[in-house]
Design brief:
Layout (H helix, E strand, L loop, with lengths): L11 H18 L4 E8 L12 E10 L2 E4 L3 E2 L11 E7 L1 H4 L3 H11 E12 L5 H8 L10 H10 L2 E3 L3 E3 L19 E8 L32
GO biological process, one term: methylation
InterPro entries: Methyltransf_11 (IPR013216), SAM-dependent_MTases_sf (IPR029063)
Keywords: Methyltransferase, Transferase
């Protein structure tokens, strides 16, 4: 099983990119509600944001075929959580370092509750960050995937998608100031919402209710005669 160089995510350029992602995600995540959130990232990820409307975070580090953090397990198996357990799920560069990224995305959708928010961030394959990553890593490197591929997968799962956004500087810099959104940014953000089950409106059907008819007339009543 390949072991990714997790220190790359602790480098100054990627720390700056993570900070730009956090700024871009803040307005969306601030509206998220629920009892629990799930935060998945590489070996040295940023801390999950403090959300005023969310109860608690569960944080997992994705390291190829392994998971650790609040829960320890295999990255080759389903996530150890119930269906619809989290109001928000964040995959912050987690799909880049997972041994089974598509299966991890499927699991993220499974544990997301209806109406919940899924946030995916990653390094965009198009631009200067991709060759920089090749130069920086000497062993198995993170696998970069086009964001439109994840959007296609999410659309196939009947998720509501927000517009895709490019984030951060176009070039990796050791002392990069925050730049936020940029058309040529090194990272991307994909936001999706899990649709709630549609409610089928029930059409009332008239039902004849027989009125009780006593066998005898009340005292003093007259029967109409024709």
């Amino acid at each position: 099983m390949p072991q990714f160089e997790q220190d790359i995510y602790a480098s100054a350029p990627l720390k700056a990119l993570l900070a730009d992602e956090a700024v871009a995600l803040a307005p969306v995540l601030a509206r998220c509600t629920g009892e629990h959130g799930l935060h998945l990232g590489p070996g040295a990820p940023a801390e999950p944001p403090a959300l005023p409307l969310l109860g608690h975070w569960a944080s997992l580090r994705v390291q190829g075929g392994r998971l650790d953090g609040d829960v320890t397990g295999s990255g080759l198996e389903p996530l150890p959580f119930l269906d619809d357990a989290f109001g928000v799920v964040m995959l912050r560069h987690a799909l880049e370092v997972s041994a089974r990224p598509e299966a991890l995305l499927d699991e993220a959708i499974r544990v997301l509750e209806p109406g919940g928010t899924l946030a995916i961030t990653g390094i965009h394959p198009l631009g200067a960050w991709s060759p920089w990553l090749v130069w920086q890593t000497r062993t198995a490197r993170p696998h970069l995937t086009w964001p439109w591929w994840w959007r296609q997968r999410l659309a196939g799962e009947d998720m509501e998608l927000s517009p895709q956004r490019r984030i951060g500087h176009a070039l990796p810099r050791d002392h990069a100031s925050r730049v936020g959104e940029s058309p040529f940014g090194g990272g991307y953000v994909v936001i999706a919402r899990k649709k709630r089950p549609s409610t089928v409106p029930l059409r009332p059907r008239p039902v004849a209710v027989p009125s009780p008819m006593p066998g005898t007339l009340a005292s003093g009543a007259r029967r109409n005669a024709r």
